[in-house]
Design brief:
43% helix, 328 residues, 2 domains, alpha+beta
Amino acid sequence: MDLKHILLTLTNIPLSLSYLRYKKVSSYRRLNEDETDVKKFIKASEYKEKYWLSMYKYLDKHYSYIFNKKYPTSYNTLSNRKNVYVLWLQGEDKLPLVSQICLERLKLLNPDINVIILTFENLKEHNINIPNYIIEKYSKGLISATSLSDLIRLDLLANNQGLYLDSTVYCLSSLPDWYFKVPFFSLNSRNLFETVGNIIRFDNYEFGEVYALGGTSSLIYSMAKDIYFDYLKNHDVVLCYELTYYIFRFLYYKYKPVREIINQLPSNNKHAECLANYFSDGDLEKKTTLQFDKDDVFIKLSNKWEYSTKYDKATLRCLLEDLVRKHS
């Protein structure tokens, strides 16, 4: 974080210290035998809630004008075609190992789905138009690839019906039809605090996770996109890594039509991150008591964890398939 970013954060977010404290503690950790981590997570959650309240006030002060604009609640024409969008700006041939395996698995288990790889070259073909001032800031290193990815998925889903998946989302089974038919789709277990196996899980947002999004309504994506685009007109840096989450949460609590759409989402994919975090040390061959439910369709992996470099492609693919068989 550079000096300009620090000054911006301190100026706009009086409780930025709460965020820094929260970031010291991961949302998911294996429990110690004495379960001392529980107290740490409870404290971290308190810090994050304080930060959220401060962020809410900031968004409410500067972006409540958004509620005076008129937005369509659905796309111009609803389609029965099942499109799944995966973003890798450098192109499919540049996908890292884990992303390659996830993409191959997605296509294998869903032969009836149209999988579209989004790259720098084809964004406009899919009605994705990121303003030049944002592209310039990205080129100068002022905003990260993660923030640009968030902006692209918002613009994508503001204009295109279908599902967006991060390239590191691994399929356990084929995608159910209802994923494409609900007004809003995301991964959401509706659990704010739980233990699964020996994993403690914290802070499942009301709307789920932004690495798997979709639905038949464009409302939340159009509003969130406009807030984020407008924010970057006047700022060179992003307030925090989870800004998209906070914008979604702001819209959820502030605007009833958004809240009603999101509240229709059934609980799903309870274990989406638990397995991935359990094996983040790279040892995919150790034992775990975790069992997937019938509603588990996705697990989140990462190109950054040790298993992404520890195994060759064939071995990693076989180990992941074996994990699915053992825990289903």
